[in-house]
Amino acid sequence: MARPRSDIKPSAIIAGATRVIASQGLSASTAAIAKESGVSNGSLFTYFETKADLLNKLYVELKTEMAEATLEGLTDDRDLREQALRVWSQWLNWATSYPEKRRTLALLNVSDDITAESQQTASRAMTEVRKLLNRVSENGPMRDTPLEFRLSLMNGVAEATIQFMIHDPADADTHCTAGFEAFWRMTV
Amino acid sequence: MARPRSDIKPSAIIAGATRVIASQGLSASTAAIAKESGVSNGSLFTYFETKADLLNKLYVELKTEMAEATLEGLTDDRDLREQALRVWSQWLNWATSYPEKRRTLALLNVSDDITAESQQTASRAMTEVRKLLNRVSENGPMRDTPLEFRLSLMNGVAEATIQFMIHDPADADTHCTAGFEAFWRMTV
DNA sequence: AATTAATGACTGACTGGACAATCATTTAAG
DNA sequence: CTTAAATGATTGTCCAGTCAGTCATTAATT
Prior knowledge:
Two copies of one chain form a homodimer.
Chain A: H1 9-24, H2 30-37, H3 41-47, H4 51-71, H5 80-97, H6 99-109, H7 116-124, H8 127-137, H9 147-167, H10 172-187
Helix pairs in contact in A: 1-2, 1-6, 2-3, 4-5, 4-6, 4-7, 5-8, 5-9, 9-10
The structure holds a DNA duplex (30 and 30 nucleotides).
């Protein structure tokens, strides 16, 4: 009976926040985010209760999008190494193709107003990656370490590789492959 | 002829800032830092021109301290692997022994008011580590990648290991060794 | 079909609080 | 007695979140 909520604005705000935070950091003002999103600063608060709420939703959104890009087209009827390489490439490709999303996500990863709940939701999106890593490494030299540790190491190598790909884009593909080989030697 | 500057206060402020920033993040107020350091908020600005200046000095101080702890007692008359393991252990041991310093340093590492100059000063403190890594990896599978890339990967694996050691302190030593072995397989 | 009532989204000026940095005084050292 | 450090109250700025008024949409009534 009343004016319905826009289904455009929430996603416009999410997109605007991604851009503004990528360039200004997490201290970007809600006013700046609203302006970039083409929305009044008042409206921002009809779709997101607080700034922290916006940051949490943004975090889950970006992480989910990353996970989907990473897992796209994955089938388990192939060689394990081939599957792992595909996931790896798609992961790093997403990160370097959307530098603003990747930078904002990196900032949110170390922010303290991301709740444990949001982190849990986000990590659920990565379940398939975890499973694949387990299959890949279950007979390797790290078989006796916690899977979480192996995941953490893989993440560390991937992040380092991404950073270097961004820093030296001309040879991005070479670095991507070299990063995968390093991960594989380490794990399998 | 005038009242001399205290040689205690600057270091007290550095130490206080480390503690407050570890617990409150980089947005900790200068007033809170001054209070924690036992100094009036006015005095903080007689020793550090601006908050950014304080953060830069703090960054260089912590990074230098970390480098010194990492390199302590290193001699090049031994087996390369032994040297590398020693450096690795001392690095990770420092990081887990001083969680506040490590957390504050981690925050400063991604802050945008750390100048390029500070980063350069800090990285100069790590020259010996770079040299050692080069000797360790110059005949390994990554010999054709940029040394900076190898350094970035080593850093990634070390950070991941540190995080996991902090997360599961009971088995810290095991994780430290497992991390080193992973690094070694990857690099050598 | 035309009119009106009800609802809640939209807007941007505004508020209250927090913070970095300053400054007038006071204190201590040479 | 001179100089500069020490102090904490103060200042100007910025920002998250609020709010009173406006406007778009739908449902009910004629």
